[in-house]
Amino acid sequence: MDADWLVFHPDPKKPDFRLPAGAVDAHCHVFGPHTRFPFAPQRKYTPCDADKNQLFALRDHLGFARNVIVQATCHGQDNRALLDALDAADGRARGVVSLAPEVSEQTLSDMTERGVRAVRFNFVRRLVEKTPHHIFHEIAQRISRFGWHVVVYFEASDLDELAPFLAALPTPVVVDHMGRPDVTKGAGHSEFQRFVRLMEEHENIWTKVTCPERLSQSGPPYDDVLPFARTLVSRFPQRVLWGTDWPHPNMKSHMPDDGALVDYIPRIAPDPAVQRTLLVDNPMRLYWPEETPT
Ligand code: 0GY
């Protein structure tokens, strides 16, 4: 792993907040083990191993029922570690993969069978080389026929440029980490308000109210991120998801305690009915619709 890599918390606290039954950790990753699933040659970072068994142990320790595992850029478009985790999860995990445009129909069909429900398009420059929008659109058309959706990761400063692209996507679109606002500017700043407007104008756009540890400038207990997450949860309760982001790639300032992150949830969603919507109903509707009452 990289010399400055921070390894995930070895012994997270048991959360004080009791998660509702059936709660979903809707954003987490698996890394390696690299001896079995080597990292991609074009990767921008080399993490520690963080394997499926460690993820499932964390799920149980924190009190989650299910995971949505998101392909991380260190594995490029080689989704084998993720698919291996889905195979071992006994139906309790869904996947978000990264794809090349030439992916075959057979591969898409096989991935669907194994629990993949979305493709991730990454625009964060420190993580990936740029992909032309028309390639992403081609992929989006193809995956839409399998009932998948699109997950996007970008920085707030890129939203203006990306908005027309996002608006033209044919599926639900889930934006990682609240569109990565610069929290020092405040939730009233035009940059974050631009993101709120995007969600107002497009009912197919969802967001993950995740990563206070990544967005915070003040550090734990992440008070400076609260207004952003609270705004999105209260304005769009039906279109928000929550996840740990374990094993927290590329954290430089500190490594969060995952139990403390769970304790952050009632601070952004104080109402138990909304907590249930955020943690159970919304992710189930998107990732396990067949188990969701209509
Ligand atoms: C996250 C955030 C990061 C990394 C990745 O795919 C990735 O490598 O998503 C990051 O460095 O901000 O969602 O895990």
Structural class: alpha/beta
In percent terms, what proportion of residues is strand?
A: 5-15%
Cα end-to-end separation: 46 Å
Which residues sit in consecutive blocks of at least 5 with pLDDT less than 50? none
Overall spatial form: globular
Number of helices: 10
Tell me about this structure.
The chain is an alpha/beta fold and 294 residues long. It has one domain: TIM Barrel, CATH 3.20.20.140. 35% of the residues lie in helices and 12% in strands. It has 10 helices and 8 strands. It has an 8-stranded parallel sheet with strand order 1-2-3-4-5-6-7-8, sandwiched between helices. Helix 5 links the parallel strand 5 and strand 6. The longest helix is centred in the C-terminal third of the chain and has 16 residues. The protein is globular and about 45 Å long. The model has no long low-confidence stretch (mean pLDDT 97). Bound molecules: (1E,3Z)-4-hydroxybuta-1,3-diene-1,2,4-tricarboxylic acid (0GY).
